[in-house]
Every structure is written in C-alpha cells, then in structure tokens.
Amino acid sequence: MELPLLTDLYQFTMAYGYWKSGRHREAAEFELFFREAPFQGGFTVYCGLEESLNFLRGFRFSRSDTDYLRSVMPSTVEEGFFHYLETVNAAEVTVTSFPEGSVVFPREPLMKVRGPLLVVQLLETTLLCLVNYASLVATNAARFRLAVGPEKRLLEMGLRRAQGPDGGLSASKYSYVGGFDCTSNVLAGKRFGIPVAGTVAHSYVTSFSSIDEVQGQTLQPADGQGGEVDFLKLSWTWLEEVCQLLKMPPHSTNVGELAAFISYAIAFPLSFLVVVDTYSVMMSGVPNFCAVALALHELGYKAVGVRLDSGDLARQSVEIRKIFRRCAERFNVPAFENLSIAVSNNISEKSLKLLTQMENEINVIGVGTHLVTCTLQPSLGCVYKLVQVNNQPRMKLSEDQEKTTIPGSKAVYRLYDGSDQPLLDLMTLGDEPPPEIGKEVKIYEVGKNIETQTVTPLRAELLHRVYFRNGQMLDSEPLPSITEVRSRAQRSLTNLSPQHRKLEDPHPYRVAVTEKLHRLLSALRRSSESRANLMQFSTGN
Amino acid sequence: MELPLLTDLYQFTMAYGYWKSGRHREAAEFELFFREAPFQGGFTVYCGLEESLNFLRGFRFSRSDTDYLRSVMPSTVEEGFFHYLETVNAAEVTVTSFPEGSVVFPREPLMKVRGPLLVVQLLETTLLCLVNYASLVATNAARFRLAVGPEKRLLEMGLRRAQGPDGGLSASKYSYVGGFDCTSNVLAGKRFGIPVAGTVAHSYVTSFSSIDEVQGQTLQPADGQGGEVDFLKLSWTWLEEVCQLLKMPPHSTNVGELAAFISYAIAFPLSFLVVVDTYSVMMSGVPNFCAVALALHELGYKAVGVRLDSGDLARQSVEIRKIFRRCAERFNVPAFENLSIAVSNNISEKSLKLLTQMENEINVIGVGTHLVTCTLQPSLGCVYKLVQVNNQPRMKLSEDQEKTTIPGSKAVYRLYDGSDQPLLDLMTLGDEPPPEIGKEVKIYEVGKNIETQTVTPLRAELLHRVYFRNGQMLDSEPLPSITEVRSRAQRSLTNLSPQHRKLEDPHPYRVAVTEKLHRLLSALRRSSESRANLMQFSTGN
Q: Which of B30, B129, B270 comes nearest A160 by C-beta?
C-alpha cells in the first residue's frame, strides 16, 4: 500500500505553507500521545512501533503521487513544491520511542519524532493510524486475558468482523501481543508466526444429511497394526452404547451430524474436535461426538474435544463434562475426563468475566467481534502534537483544557520504590539531568492543579530508546520478535500493581512533570493568555 | 495482500474433510446475510461487492501458501490435498447478488455463492470480511447524512482512528457511498476518485511564534495588476480595524497565530480556510482570520472560511457569523456574510442531531472517530450459511432460534404498491415463478410465528443479478463506478418510506417468504426435531 499518501490532505496544504514561507527545513519535534487510557482502564499496551518504522523507511512520494496532489491542490500551488516533495524522505528523521509492548500512560510521549518541519508534519496521520488501533486492540486483548486469568486458552477469531483485510490482520497480530494464545487467521499465522487454530463450522455439519455420505470409508488403527477398520460401523456400535448410557432411544441423534463427525474423524483422527450445537447439544451433538470419539479411542487415537457456539456456555460445559466423566468411567477411557471444551458466542469482556465467575468446565475460549472491534471503546485517541520548533517549545492552548499540550522535548523516567514497584512516570525536559537516586524530587502530577508532591526514587529507568536515525533502523536497538514483544507486554502488566491493573475503577497511575517543565508550562500558558509573544521562552532558560 | 489465505483455519480443515470423503466437488450454495440491521435502525446499505468479485478473480493458492498450511495442519493430512489446493480457483463459482449500494434488510441473501463445496466453503471468511465493514460504515454514513439533512457538507476524516491503513481506506470509500461529500484521506482520493478536502491543523498554527517568521513575504493582487504588496503590513492594518470594530485592544490577538494565518493566506490566496481555536476563538482566532481575510479581499481574492475544533460548536458558529456580518457591513465586503464555517470535534450521530436542532451557522461538518469506528455498533453480523448441497436444501437449527437459517436457493423480489412504494421483500424458492402482478400472494413474515398475510403487488422487482460466472465478471452486469454506487444508495434510501428510514424506532420493513418456502422450512424443522433423515426433502417436492 502507498502509505505515504495514506494521510489527510491538510498535511500537504500545511507542507506547502511551510515550504512557501521557507520554513520547511526548520528543526521540529512532534510527540505522539493519548489523553486517556481506553475502556476506562488504568493502562495501555503500546504497539505499532515496528510498522511505523517500516513506514518511515519507505517514506517517499512517487511521480504519480505528486501528479495526483497537483490535481487536487489549489492551482495557486507552485510547481517547485511538487518537485521538492519528490525529494522528500525520512533521512533526517529521528524516532525515539517506548519499546513496543510497553505499558504506557496518559500524556507521556509514546513516540517522539524529530526532523525537518515539513517532513515530520507529513508523517502525522499515518503514524497515528499505525499506532492507534494496534495499541487499542493489544490493550483490549490484555484486558480479556486479565479477566479470564492465565489458565484458559484464548483464541482470537474476529477476522470476519474486522475493518477489512488489514484490520483483521492487525487484530490478530496485536491480540496475540496482548495475551491471546492463538488466532484463527491463517494469513496472520503465516506472516507473523502466530499459532493458528480451528476445526469445523456448522456448515460442515449441515453439508452432511445422510449416513450414505460416509459409507465405505475406513480407518487404520493408530499403531498401523491390522487392516483398515469400517469406521462407520464402529461408530454406529458405539452410538448404541452411548445412547444406552445416556438413557436415550438408540440412534435418536441427527444422522447428518453423525456422518459429519465420522468423516471428520477419518480426516483428523489425531485432532478430532467438532462443533456440537448444530442441532441439539445434549440430544444429538454430544452423544454423536462421544460415539465417534470412543471409536477413535478403540483404534488407539485420542479425540481432542467439542466446541459450543450458542446457549448457556458455562452450564452446558458442566453438563458435557459430566457426560465425559460418565463415559470415562463406564467405558474405561480415562482420557475422556480431560477432553477439551471450547466455547464461542459473541463473548465480551463482561460476559467473559461472568463466565469465569460461574461454575464451568471450559478450556478454550474463542473471542471475535468484541475483541477486534473493541466494542467498549472502538478507538484510542492518540494525537500527534508539535512540541518544539528550532529548539523553542510550542504548546497548543485550548478552550477545552484537556486539549492543551505539554510543550518541549521531553524524557520519561519510570521511578521505582524500595521494593522495585513503579511509583510514577516522570517527564523531564530533554536537557534536565535524570532524577537522582535516593534523593527527594519535586513533582507536579499532570492534569491536577494541586501543590507540589515529592517522591524519592530508588531506581529510575529511562523509558525511551532511539530506534531510527538518518533514515535507518539502529543496530543498537534491533526490533524484537513478536514473541518478545508479547513477553514484554505480559511482563510489564505483571509488574504493574494490582490496583493500577484492575479492569474497573483502577487507581490512576501517576504521570508527573518536573518543576522545570511545570514552570515552562505555566509560563507559556500565562504568556499566551496575556497574548504576548511566545518567542521569549525556551528550554534553555 | 494474499487474500485467499486471509481466512480462518477451520475453512482448510473442513476443506480437507470434504476432500477426504470425496465430497469436495459436490454442488453447493452458500448465502451471505445478516440477522439485524445495525444501529437499531431499519435499513442497511449493502457494500463490498466489487471487492468480493476482485477477490474471487484472484482466488488461488501459491506454493508458499500450501507450504505454510502443511506446516500448521495435522500431520495426518494427506499430501494429495495440498496438491489439490494448488489447482483450486473460482472458475466454477457463480455469484448472484444485490447491486452494490442497495438498501437491504435482515435475512435476505445479499449474495449467493454457488460452486464446488470445497471452493465455496473456502471463500467464507474473506467474503464476510469484505462485506461486513463496508456495509456497516456505508450504513453509518447514510445515517449521519439523514441526521443532518441534504444541505450541510459532510467530510469524512477518520483515517487516524481506523483499524489500520486498509480500515481507513475502506472507511473513506464507503462513507462516500453512504452520503458523505468528501474525505480527508488522500490515498482514498487517488484510488477511488473521491473528492478530498482539508486545510490546516493546530500544529501549523503553533509552529509560528513570531511575526518575524513571515516578514518580507508579499502577495500580488488577484488581477495581476500592480506590483507585489507587503501582505504582512496590509493584514496588520486590517487587524487594527477589526479590533476596533470588535472593541478589542489593538493587536491583542496571538501574533504566532496571526503569522500562521498570513503565511497560509500567501500560500493559498484563493482557498484561505484556517482553524481558529488554537488559542482563543473569539479573542484571537476570529479577529486574526478577519484581518487576513479582509487583506485578501482588498487584493481581489476571496477567503473561504474558518474551522472550529473545540467548544460549543453551534453557539460559536452563531457568534462567528455575527462577526462576519458586522465585517461585511462595516467594510462593505458582502462576501463575508457567506464565509464557510466548518466544525469538527468528536461528532457522533447523536451530537450531530442535537447540533442540527440548535440554532447554528455551520456549513461543513467533519466526522472522524464515530463514523469510521461505528461506535454505536462496531460490527455488522453478516454470516455465510450453507443453504443447499446437490440441489438439496440445508438448514442449521439452533437452540438460539435466531441462529436458525432459511434453507434452499432463493430469489428475492421487492414488491411495490399502487403508488410504487415498496411493500416488502419476498423470498421465493429458486424454482418458483415470480409473484404475479395484480394478484394476491400469500406470504409469511420472517421471524414472526403468525398466520398468513396476503399482499397484492402492482410491481415486482427481481433484486438479484448474476455478476460472476466461470471465474469471470459478466459483461452483462458491468460494475458501476463509485459515483453510481453512491447514487444508487441515495436513491434507494429516498425510495424507502420515512417510517422505515427514520433513525430511531423505525417501523420494521417486512421481509417474507412464500408459502412453498415456508412449507420447506417447517418440514425441515420438524424433520430435524424428530431426528429423521433430512434427505427426503428437496426443493423439487
């Protein structure tokens, strides 16, 4: 995709404004941040860095791009601008960022982008597009993981409900980072090396209507000894046993479903897992499954389990487990006790929480729509704001106090207490020394107009790293694999204290600024309010 | 993107099941439908057809795809299956569909996909992914258009909040189809020929801090007569006049903002539209704008207007219009009365409705997040269900009554009354004759277990068309341009009666089945409930 053109038109009109007034090569710094953690939660998992850096590497405009721009921009735009655009790339851009997968908080710069004013302005929309959804869905996935605990297996299966092909790919990738175990999305598996999973849908079951459709099919015992066995006959016999055990009329289950299960077992004797709610779970799906699974076990194979896609999932899982246990006991097949029960059916964070609070025998949970569309809050409001031009700090005041920005190029430190628990994140101006260990630091909490607080850090971790300089990724910061990003996310979440991590009414994690940054902020605000020239304030003072 | 692999793994495990049991070439038909209109509304705008057909044209698996599949599917899968997969394409697939942009209703097949069982099964997830979001966002856009009425200009600007690059492209494309006028998304403009719009962001304004930054820049009068004019000086003079008119201290506005406006006006003398809320709308942004716009007018240019991105948009627009009128009168510049006022700021369907009910002077509305993420309901639940195999109807019963499907290959007619108003959509079995004009037809409304109704259509429109056969688009149904699709959507919505079209508590549009289809449905349900063999029922009986 032609990412450099995937941006808002106003980036180009602004670029022309800069060019026309000869300011296009002034040194500027933008920062990318959000104002509030999504889902009324306390944390955000930062993602999208690698894709952003790849975008930067390929950032240039083709002749066809400038031809198009010429056709839509006002006729007063000078030809020289389009020629200049054709020379533009990210060779003078520096990107400093949190590592991908970090747990981040409101108002701190996730990414700082420094370079010629015209270039870094043009990057805005694409960078936001690459970071916003990636971070949102990773955070959502992390919440599902926290809601369900570490034991149950989580499968992402939202491709069909995502915002088109690439929305689906991103959803799979970043759900994995957020803590899911696998995806149904094959292309995501191929591209990113994420584990993939899935067996059968209802259409497979309904495509069979008669036992004739599997007549004559055979299966060899697992140990390869003895000849092919008539697997239909074997399953049919087991169905009689199962119906007797369950006190059902013999062969009262749906035969199309039975045929589907038999054919699937012949195809996948080592990975037999089928959906059991096409007709009736307890009167057809489960008895049919047990019959075919017992036939497999007789031949030395092991069935995997069942999937439920409707109804009361917790209650049904308990009932099904009981049947599995009865089969295990009656037919002396201990493995039956531990068959897997997978569920899906429009699962949300809320329903997942309820599910885990109820008695249940569920092993695997598939989540689609609510995960990939982030129903609770379908967007993360990352913004990209100018904080410095020619080493002079800039800020945007606003009648919405919330939209006011924090000026200047900043470093962010995570300060830890004596037990190595994070105390808060502290933003300093770029030219300030790092906070001194064991010494009291004056801080001002962001978004609170209260008096100074003090903290005494016993460790201070500089959170940003330089990832990109002179148009190149840096060898000093090789990009981690997706598994490493996933581990970082899980580790960062674990390090967070439970009151910051909890899904509802979390205690807000503190983000603060130093005294010097606080003074700059107040001075620029006063200066703007008194409508004086902003020029006189600089980080140097 | 390798779309054929952008699907759920279970499509391949099912495909193997079909192949292994020798059923892969059986003639099957799936249909794509949804169960409920989104946003608790009465209608859905169907989109995604063209992209679906393009996907079909390129549908084949590469060696690298089958290599990947071999690595993730169970080791029991036979090699012959992967070889077979490499031969698979859409050459035997037929697609019958509503035209793109049609207004459609729950339960009717939007798209019917017929072909070899294995192939049409494999298409499921990708088709759903291509239709679901496209239709959802087009419908959402149509609702914004209905909420605001035909007069105001609607700009889509959601790229930065979409689900990644392609989510953003789809959002722009289908918002236009749904009734938006233009997009901020440049690539969407280039790819689809959608009008693009946009001027400046706050960063442009904050990047200027001093009047020095535009010193020495000049502008030639519009008629090319006379020499270059010192535009800074001219604007400065006008600012004095404006401040006097508005009873403000002279030059009390923010000078950085003034500098930004002057530089932008020099760059775009024929399309001067700037954002006026970087500092204070009434104390800085509007006076600065008026000064620069008046300077432009003095030189024979025409300013375009202002944009607001915060605060009470309706109230501010009224106040700004008053100032424009005062300027028009005092300085004898009539064009000032009709300057454009554009607004944005997290606009939702609800806030848009409120806005239009209030006194306002707004001309252009930019909508981002709520449009592209469809906050009110971020997914459309289209599903793809098997309705027929080997000319035998199939249905999926479910313990969730709602999830039960309607069996058989169906045609859909829109029946009209004497005043050519749509009465209802009627589904017939494929081999039934069309409803007779002027003759009473027995119908059964879908989802209602009530007695027969009758209608007497005075016109019956067959809604489906065949778009794809033998791996090819059909010349008989050339795909319409995006503008034609947009017109169809707007026309279809206009034809819909107001009570079906209204955004809240709409009267449900009726979708019904014929007596014959109703009988088939009942018979299959009874048959399954009595666990008999489904084989005996066919469309032929």
A: B129
